[in-house]
Amino acid sequence: MTDLSATRAIEGEAQFGDYFALLKPRVMTLVVFTALVGMLVAPVAVHPFVGFCAILFIAVGGGASGALNMWWDADIDAVMRRTSGRPIPSGRVTGGEALAIGLALSGFSVVMLGLATNWAAAALLAFTIFFYAVIYSMWLKRSTPQNIVIGGAAGAFPPMIGWLAATGSLSLEPVLMFALVFLWTPPHFWALALFMRSDYDDAGVPMLTVTHGRPATRRHILAYSIVLAVFAVWLAVTAAGGPVYAVTAVALNAWLLRGAVQIVRRDESAAEADRYLVEKKFFKFSLLYLFLHFGALLADAGLRGAGVL
After folding, report:
1. CA–CA gap between residue 70 and residue 94 (Å, rounded)
2. Rounded to whole angstroms, how far apart are CA atoms 227 and 216?
3. What is the pTM of this model?
4. What is the distance between the alpha carbons of residues 188 and 221, in angstroms, rounded to a whole number?
5. Distance of CA 233 to the CA centre of its chain
6. Which of 58, 87, 99, 207 stands the most exposed, by the fewest C-beta atoms within 10 Å?
């Protein structure tokens, strides 16, 4: 069996891991975590089994979005170094298979989330899948340098879905959690684009670095980081926040702004000389930034549940 599997892999036939890769598991991790935090910080207790089912179906919906995105973007994925090894451009999975998987999982996740929790949460999950697959992937990504700005909403909906699954309604707290992810997305991806610009040039994707240049992108990173810091700290004074989140938000956003200022002060000769070291550090920090904010929200919720706060 091992020899057969190896032979199939060499010949390019799909393995289970290739179909799983269609679901963008790294992105799904963020979706699951932020949705879980949105559910657990809500002021309504959720039965563990119902909560498990809700997060599972939200994860499946996120995976469905990833499959639909890979189906549509297969042509540009094949051009970009960062994505050329994905299942479709590598030939291990066909576009038709990815489309079928994406559509099937979309319908399954929405219906099951509605049955497990409520139809408001299911409706927002359906809109999230539509937003990512159609509005972002099919329209914004290839037509405007604001693709990441507007398209970032797709990744920002999960904490709202988690909150809705628990409560059936929305309030300021989930909106601010949405804003935290939404405003984080542009500087996170623009930092990546600063040192991966050639990929977007080759693929014809109108990323800000391509349409406006790196200096303008650096200024945009600083501007969005300032607005992001305001909303991140604002969340600390709501019912979802607490002392752990407050300290975490102040420290992380001070570091964020420091990094953004360093980026905007650099010229291209300095960046090329050290191979975009500062930009890469900012990008790596941004990966931790969101998880630490939501982790702090979860810690405060745990302290409240234990009666400490």
Report:
1. 10
2. 17
3. 0.90
4. 8
5. 20
6. 99
